[in-house]
TrEMBL record:
It comes from Stappia indica. This is 4-hydroxy-tetrahydrodipicolinate synthase. InterPro entries: Aldolase_TIM, DapA-like. The keyword Lyase applies. Pyruvate binds at M214. One of its GO terms (molecular function) is 4-hydroxy-tetrahydrodipicolinate synthase activity. GO terms for cellular component: cytosol. Pfam families: DHDPS (PF00701).
Length: 307
């Protein structure tokens, strides 16, 4: 598989991690999940992201998940792997294992202790030194990490570190940041910008200059449909599709419950054998499940109307 580079575009779906009812890895579920994402039109997959419950996995479990999905995908799309960790030794070890298995690149989020631009830039310089020539995605997700990345520090990282090939943009509000980064001369070279936050701003992000999405949603067809229609120049169709999915996408974005909702919907769609989150993790109560069921029914009705 070719390595990730600055031309990355489309939809790199953030994969969930399937578990059995007891919290063990569900490797057969990994196969079904990979097949589902590919059938939905994924350009690539991103494993062990925030919504992949990466912090709940051992290093061996993480490597096992990646190896299983890589074998199932069999080179059809590139695989990016989240390798963020408290220390560089673990990051270096996991990066080496997944790249040897055929991953296209890795994703690195900053630790929450970073406060200044110099600290942020210095951290990524050290991280890049530890993983060598492996291309990486710079994850800008202040709502989770607590780290505020300014446009100048992102531009500095892009200029100083050639292996930074993609920005995973998840600032919120963040549309102005995309515009600033896409302004002529803002960065030393053009890198890919793939956006997160469950795709709830995707039409606007695409029109601001993003190259696609790197996020998850239980109906990935929404994101692939928006990106595809944007590429065709048909933003009216893109917005019609987006609007149909928005109530459920909004519901899934609830802090604390979002992943439980996503896994429940994937369970309802037959992708997951059960909606288990590994502990500690929230579970949906009966009323919440009923609300999701209602949103799914309304979505299916609206999609039929849109044909």
């Amino acid at each position: 598989m070719a390595r990730l580079d600055e031309s990355a575009r489309g939809v790199y779906l953030i994969a969930v991690t399937p578990f059995t009812e007891t919290g063990a890895l569900d490797l057969d579920g990994c196969d079904r999940m990979a097949d589902f994402y590919l059938e939905a039109g994924a350009t690539g997959l991103t494993l062990l992201g925030v919504m992949g419950e990466a912090p709940k996995l051992t290093t061996d479990e993480s490597a096992t998940i990646v190896n299983r999905v890589l074998k199932r995908v069999d080179g059809r799309v590139p695989i990016v792997v989240g390798v963020s960790s408290p220390g560089f030794a673990q990051m270096q070890a996991l990066t080496g294992r997944v790249m040897d298995d055929g991953a296209a690149g890795v994703m690195i989020a900053p630790p929450g202790s970073l406060r200044t631009d110099d600290q942020i830039a210095g951290y990524y310089e050290q991280a890049a030194e530890m993983i060598g020539d492996v291309p990486f995605v710079l994850q800008d997700f202040p709502l989770t990490t607590g780290v505020q990345m300014s446009v100048p520090v992102i531009a500095r990282i892009i200029k100083d570190i050639p292996t930074c090939v993609c920005l995973k943009h998840e600032d919120w509000p963040g549309l102005a940041k995309i515009t600033a980064l896409r302004k002529e001369g803002a960065t030393a070279r053009r890198v890919s910008i793939l956006c997160g936050n469950g795709g709830v701003f995707l039409p606007e992000e695409m029109e601001r200059g993003a190259d696609g999405a790197m996020t998850g949603f239980a109906y990935p067809e929404m994101m692939t449909g928006v990106v595809e229609n944007h590429a065709k120049g048909d933003m009216e169709r893109a917005r019609d599709l987006f609007d149909a999915y928005l109530p459920l996408a909004r519901f899934e974005q609830q802090p604390g419950l979002g992943l439980a909702i996503r896994k429940y919907v994937l369970y309802r769609r037959g992708v997951l054998a059960n909606p288990t989150l590994r502990k500690p993790g929230a579970a949906l109560d009966p009323l919440s499940r009923a609300e999701v069921d209602r949103l799914m029914a309304r979505l299916e009705k609206r999609l039929k109307e849109l044909n």
